[in-house]
TrEMBL record:
The keyword Flavoprotein is annotated on this UniProt entry: yes
Organism: Blautia intestinihominis
Domain called FAD-binding PCMH-type: residue spans: 1-162
Keywords associated with the record: Flavoprotein, Oxidoreductase
Name this polypeptide is given: FAD binding domain-containing protein
Organism superkingdom: Bacteria
PANTHER family documented for this protein: XANTHINE DEHYDROGENASE FAD-BINDING SUBUNIT XDHB-RELATED (PTHR42659:SF9), XANTHINE DEHYDROGENASE SUBUNIT C-RELATED (PTHR42659)
One of the Pfam families matching this protein, by short name: FAD_binding_5
InterPro entries the record matches: CO_DH_flav_C, CO_DH_flav_C_dom_sf, Diverse_Substr_Oxidored, FAD-bd_PCMH, FAD-bd_PCMH-like_sf, FAD-bd_PCMH_sub2, Mopterin_DH_FAD-bd
Length: 272
């Protein structure tokens, strides 16, 4: 059972930050995951009155407020045009529309959950987080930071030339994913992200530069390097087993989803 001693709908980020310095205080977000736990909360901090919901687009970036719902991500035409529908694909299997109308992108990113489709997707882009105290830092850095009492204000996606594909494997349509995969070409940078391992999402470091100059290769050469990199990813991504799948099954999925997603980005397949 979740027990809350004091509820505060704050009037400013500064007020939220001050209240959140207490170890037993917590920012509520969408309350869809938090309410399932057992804990005592001294102060529940509600950011819903600060205008931090919505997606703003400029020439350089998308600015996504921390209180933006997953449903807003799913239905935003501009963001989905930019990502070729990958953002929609990354959230459309998450429980149901009612759930996605409550769950927030800020809660998903801040939690850095091991099952998170949202974290996997945003790591596949040039994404930054804006924190009240620490300022703007790359999501690739934030994901490995120790959790603290800062406040996540915005998620920022830098607009660069982008081709991206998101895939996941689920045992049933609305269940947690067995494995998630996002691959992208951000400018000339090839990036592969694997999540639900079942640990938090990670960027696969291509230390052998297998996918280097990917766009300049012929279709036959692309097929060869994609298969080689899929094998490489399966060898270098740590996985483990739980009730949804064994370690061996997840390792196989790393290979299969990496290959399929890169075939989409490489233009060899038109659909997910």
């Amino acid at each position: 059972m979740l027990k809350i001693k004091s509820y505060v709908k704050v009037n400013s980020i500064e007020e939220a930050y001050e209240l959140n310095q207490k170890k037993t205080a917590i920012v509520l977000g969408g309350m869809v995951w938090l309410k399932m736990g057992n804990r005592n909360i001294s102060t529940a901090i509600d950011l819903s009155g600060l205008g931090l919901a919505g997606i703003q687009e400029t020439d350089e970036e998308f600015v996504i407020g921390c209180m933006t719902t997953l449903r807003e991500l799913e239905t935003d035409k501009r963001l989905n045009e930019y990502t070729q529908g990958a953002v929609r694909e990354s959230v459309r299997h998450i429980v149901g529309v009612q759930f996605r109308n409550c769950a927030t992108v800020g809660g998903s990113i801040w939690g850095r959950y091991g099952f998170s489709d949202v974290l996997t997707m945003f790591l596949g882009m040039d994404t930054w987080v804006e924190l009240h105290n620490a300022g703007k830092i790359p999501l690739t850095e934030f994901v490995d930071r120790k959790k603290d009492n800062d406040i996540l204000v915005n998620i920022i996606v830098k607009k660069q030339p982008l081709r991206v594909c998101y895939m996941s494997q689920r045992n049933t349509k609305t269940d947690f994913p067995v494995l998630t995969c996002c691959v992208s070409l951000i400018g000339n940078e090839a990036r592969t992200v694997i999540g639900a391992r079942p640990a938090r999402a990670m960027v696969v470091e291509d230390q052998e530069d297998i996918l280097g100059n990917f766009d300049q290769k012929s279709e036959e050469a692309k097929k060869e390097v994609i298969q080689k990199f899929a094998d490489y990813a399966a060898e270098h991504v740590p996985t483990s087993g739980n009730m949804r799948g064994s370690k061996e099954y997840r390792t196989l999925l790393v290979k299969v989803l990496t290959r399929r997603a890169w075939e989409v980005v490489g233009g060899m397949k038109d659909e997910y």
